[in-house]
TrEMBL record:
<dbReference type="InterPro" id="IPR001296">
    <property type="entry name" value="Glyco_trans_1"/>
</dbReference>
<dbReference type="InterPro" id="IPR028098">
    <property type="entry name" value="Glyco_trans_4-like_N"/>
</dbReference>
<protein>
    <submittedName>
        <fullName>Glycosyl transferase group 1</fullName>
    </submittedName>
</protein>
<feature type="domain" description="Glycosyl transferase family 1">
    <location>
        <begin position="198"/>
        <end position="356"/>
    </location>
</feature>
<dbReference type="Pfam" id="PF13439">
    <property type="entry name" value="Glyco_transf_4"/>
</dbReference>
<keyword id="KW-0808">Transferase</keyword>
<dbReference type="Pfam" id="PF00534">
    <property type="entry name" value="Glycos_transf_1"/>
</dbReference>
<keyword id="KW-0328">Glycosyltransferase</keyword>
<feature type="domain" description="Glycosyltransferase subfamily 4-like N-terminal">
    <location>
        <begin position="14"/>
        <end position="178"/>
    </location>
</feature>
<dbReference type="GO" id="GO:0016757">
    <property type="term" value="F:glycosyltransferase activity"/>
</dbReference>
Amino acid sequence: MKIVHVHHHYWPVVGGLENVVKALAEGMAKLRHEVHVITSQYGAENRPREEVINGVHIHRVKAVRLGYPDLTYPLKVPRDLLRNADVVHGHSQNSLFTVKVVEEAKKLGIKTMMHFMAVDALRDHPNALVRLLGPKYSNTMLKRALGIADVRLARSLRDKALIEGRFGVNVEYVPDGVPRWFIERDYLGDAFRSKYGINGDYVLYVGRLHPLKGVDVLIKAMSLVINKIDLRLVIVGPGERRPYMELARRVGVDKHVFFLGFISEEDKVGAIDGSIGVVLPSISNYVEVYPMIITEAWARAKPIIATMVGGVLYRVKHMTNGLLVSPRNPAALAEAIVTLAEDKELGRRLGAEGRKSVLTWDEIVNKLLSIYSGG
């Protein structure tokens, strides 16, 4: 089967959706399908316009960008490639690049798939201009994408429910997976602690250092936590650390918070293994469509403490596979952290329950291939 994936970013750009497209493309190529990715040159300006990596044919086309990555527009669409495809799979209806390329495939009579995400998720954005204009743009793109997709897919049950309820169309739920090794790898917690010099219990945050991710709320919560128990916070992920380090110092938890920046996948497994649980303190629907860190924590049988935003509510069930708290609430977050720290058996039970829902990328790839072929 000749399969074309479309998104405005691809490797070497690293991010949630970029990693998803890469996992799907390489997984399908390993099964001897002819797999292509149409993407823009943004983030890969030093790479060839055409290359093959791990069996995947990458086509970086010239594009223009109006500030935001989603507002990337292709100046050239490789129609000859689309014309010979069996299926064209677009990722994110919010991406102008994706919608334009899939639209061209539709005109050529090629079977089209669209993976929908972050539907109606900008209404709580902290930026007033984004709150004003974002919903209008996203609603326009949603309707446009629905019109060109032969098959509609959703990464989250939230987006599936919203689209089916509003438009009365069928949407296939195809979530993200993890590599099989992520589940099967031996325990790495002790090695991680030794490498980074972390002693004692800690909770873990993995993600960007971004205002919408609620890292400041988590640091403030830690100032309440350490008044009750001896606990540390390990923060893993890219972004500007300085404002968060200054906040930690102001609230008196700087000696309890470890900023590790970007770490390897193996070290991430160790960070999860060594923790008492993973905290997801986000404050906006937009940034938590299908949080991969939930899947990764559950893959290692670790519990999640998460705020009730985006797709989280459709996955984390309070006191069943995790703990839920309201966003922007340091006191509620602190209470949940203390609960988990003081009841290790609860953490084991929540993590074990979460692990039951984890799928591997092999399983996701096979499901998509069945959908492609009409199965």
